[in-house]
Amino acid sequence: MFLEDGAYTTVAAAVAMLMALALLFSASIAVWSAGRSGDVQARADATALAGANVVSSYHAVATVLDACSLSLGLAGFTMTGVGLIGAFVPGAQSAAAKTLDAGLDMLETRNTFVTSASRGLKTLEDSLPYLVAANATHACTAQNGESTTYAGSALAAPSTSASEFPALEGDQISIGELERESGELEQAAADLARAAEHTAAKKEAAWLADCGRDGMNMQERAGRLSGIADHDNPDFASSMVWEPNVALDRARAYYRWRYDHDAPEGQRVEARADAAARHAFYGFAIKTLAGAEVVERDGTITSTVKLLPRNTEEVRKTSLYTDAAWPSSNEDDGLTLHFSSSCPGAQGAAGPSLSLESLDQGAARECEVCRFSIGDVGKAPAASTSIDNGFEYHLRAFTLALDDYVAARQQELDEQARSRGEAEQVSGAFEEAISDLSGRRPRIAPPGRDGCIALVVASATQTPEDLQSPFATTEHVAERGAVSAAVLAPDEATRQNNVLSGFFSSLEGRVGSGGAVGLVDSVMDLWGDLLISYGESSAGIDRAFSDLAEGLGRIGVGSVGTWFKGRLQGIVRTLGIEPVDLRQRKPVLTDSSLVASRAGMQDYAHIQGALRSIPAGATDPEAILQAVGYAVGERIMSMEFTIAEIPLPGGGSLPLTVRVSDIASIGGGGS
Fold it and tell me: Which burial class, exposed, middle or buried, applies to 201 when counting CB atoms under 10 A from its CB (0-12, 13-18, 19+)?
């Protein structure tokens, strides 16, 4: 029938054509049927990714809340620390007080925020399995075609939470002690500032007498009345760079020169006696000033500088009156005291050296020629002390001012010791409070942390009319299902691509920069910098704190402030805040059996049973969710809550709100 004379017959050709047509139409139907089976798997994959995307969003929300909590605390402590240090900056106490108050307010704000965030995260995690299922259901039904409908959802694997939020579970930074100690420190710093101002005024008075006063002063008089070298007679333009011992060195050099170069103003006995009296006074001044000094050591200042006598009565109280320093002679009228052995009145034999006191006691008599007595020595300093053209006038003014300066400086040193004690107390309270931020970072382990398993079924499908033919049997494709799974894979974080980048994009559009507060140019800028440095944790606050503290250092914080600044910087630098993982989590497909195994869902048959329970062709999301074990009812419809209110330092707040109905696309839909 098929071969004739070595060639194919007409029957053979017809059969071949019929066979080819039958195979062609059968293959087309087979390809179409296989395609329908592949479609349901693709829908399951998309459904799994939709469920995992909810878990990814939760990661971002939890990280943003932790970032806000941590950075609010760090910004508060930075401002508090800078405000405390600023209390010791001259002229900046008012601004420092405002900065300190702003820092403490920010810590209070952080505590309020943590309470709301803790409550919101707990609610969100409890609802996360429903959110996963609702979003997956919405994604599945959105893929319905003209001839095929898909019904399905996703299971969070596991469905329970293992998250730990030590900084977000209602933990509060205890700032009561810090507030109390800060108040004590501010008072001590204010008292110290007043004491320092008083000391500066007294020091300036001493400086004015030595070399600061226009016209005549110790420096100017020493230059006019002696020939001491310039290096022994320096000038200082400000009391800030001048020290009291400069004046003492000047006075010693001056009196040494006068002692060595003073000569009688003529050869008359009176002139020679006056020169002897001046010589004695200069020698006494050299001896008095030889060991004089102002020493500050171990919180105590001492001065051994004494006033030189200014008249006869004061000379009587010194060794000029009591020391046996004057020659005598045995005259006919008795033992006689002279200003010098060369006195014309010394005619008799030389006698012992006598004191001027011996004249008043009657042990010796006054010379009839020179008439030398305590009055001659007393008038040597009297004239130059009484009028401002004398060196002693300014030396006495310096010495009196120096006594006032020493008393004021001792009061300041006492206030410094008190302030340092208060600084010790407040730094301990600061360290205790900030230690609440130095614990371990939150462990984000929500439902669905091991992945999401999607269950999707497709309705039965009629063979298209174009494929129906007498050459092949036409059958409907029966109901079919598929299982898929997705997990979260971390994406490399960069400055522009991390969990916080999207949050900042929203924040920048809704929040303006805050106003200046105290020593911090912008509270919002500081908070924003610390938010950006969230992943660096300790490094971020160390850098911010150091920059601000060093800025104060350039202004000048004094010895207590310098010590306190180093103490607080040391506390900040030793914070044990762990680095933070800011990588975004993106859903990727994986083996569903691995997800089930890792999540502890060992009974994989349960998943298959849940798949079979999904009504094919269903379009009611609530019915689909109930089929996979989520009897949500009105829960989804009513769930719209604020996870947390992010307080803004400039005023107001930024609410983070979740609308479950939008995610599930129930009751009006949404995005």
Answer: middle
